[in-house]
Amino acid sequence: MAKGIAAYNNPNLSLPIEERIKALIGEIIESPDYAGFDVSGLKQCKFISASTEKQSTSWELTITDALCNKSGNLHGGAAATILDTLTSTALLTIAKPGFLDAGHVSRSLNTTYLRPAPSGMRCRVECEVVAAGKNTAMVRGVIMTMDGKVCVHCAHDKAVFKKAKL
């Protein structure tokens, strides 16, 4: 197992929902043992809220030059990477002992790019669980302008791990 991702593979379910999410993102962007390419994009994301009722998380994202393509707009790969991680945080809103408590990996991440998000723009990112079962989960993510115009939409299909029984 890679270092620095304990909150992802083994979330502390005794923490309040918002603290679970902050622990996951904190381990990714602050870990001295991890410097993956997702770090720079996630550093531009600010956690806003989480809802167990809506099974969702909300974020603000500032588009920086480092996240942009040569046209000065959010790069598709950067958008997909950010959505990959942030949609996964929505699953923490429904995790409980024996359910979504041992991590998950992407099976597919389908992104649709609807309008550009230029450098300097502040965006909202909304993520919500569509469905979750013992083996798979589906999460939706949207990057939108602050006035609600959708820039990027994704459907994220996840394979769910089970804790080993000893």
UniProtKB/TrEMBL annotation:
Pfam families: 4HBT
Alphabetized GO MF terms: fatty acyl-CoA hydrolase activity
Segments passing through the bilayer: none
Source species, domain of life: Eukaryota
InterPro entries reported for this sequence: ACOT13 (IPR039298), HotDog_dom_sf (IPR029069), PAAI_dom (IPR003736), Thioestr_dom (IPR006683)
Cited SUPFAM superfamilies: Thioesterase/thiol ester dehydrase-isomerase (SSF54637)
UniProt xrefs under PANTHER family: ACYL-COENZYME A THIOESTERASE 13, THIOESTERASE SUPERFAMILY MEMBER-RELATED
Family: Belongs to the thioesterase PaaI family.
Protein's UniProt name: Thioesterase
Species assigned in the record: Tothia fuscella
